[in-house]
Amino acid sequence: MKFDFTATSAIKVLPPGFKYISQDNFYIANLNNQDTTPPINYLFSDSATSCIIVIVEGKDKDNNPLVAMAHLSRKERFLAFFEKVSTSFYGKTSVFAQGANPANAPASIENALTLISWVNENKQNKATQQWFIEQVSLSVGQGNPQEDDRGCFGINLSNMTVSNQRFLMTDLERDPSGGSQTLFCVFGLKVEPQVILPEAGSSFTQAQLNLLVAKAHSEQWTDILYMTKDEVLNKYSSTPQYEAPWFFSSLRDSALYVKNFQQ
Fold it and tell me: The organism sits in which domain of life (predicted)?
């Protein structure tokens, strides 16, 4: 595993086997047992501000190479991902992460401390552990996430290289459902039962969608349709001056999804 910092321009055409990891989603690729065509060759996520994108590389108990990736925003979601790592990996692992920007935002600080605490607890110093962290590279709290592609992170599975290479994507490529993914990010921890950390590419159940939309209605989410971009940023972002350019459109799409939703 290696890290390659790049300052090259964004790639406009997504490569074969490209898989996007949405915010508060995870994915674990077993490189000896991929059931997709073409096989997944690149895991990527973007839009991270106070969130942290985490990549874990290692093996399972049958010696199959594994790569896990998640884009995480809240402590509950970090802990859910950490549990998936602990039940999937055996032996030594490598951990790479980027995010928690800007560094002085309260959410950035909490997320960085959550990640660092987990790393420290699982470094190679416990001989009886099922798995442990041997290699770690954390790039957190580095500054404006819109500079140096600090909001982007991914791994090329063909050469096991982690980088901040950016890819140009449409709103629909980020959320093929047209809004439910964003709705989940905002309200998934506010419904009962909670929707915490789905697998990237999976679909929400009808029951989950009903809960998310009902919660959104209770908080007047469709008001977003009548607000300016600045109003939305200042009301719904903890880091309004640092959000990705598509933050506003993704929230607006989710509000439109709520308006048009039919059970």
Answer: Bacteria
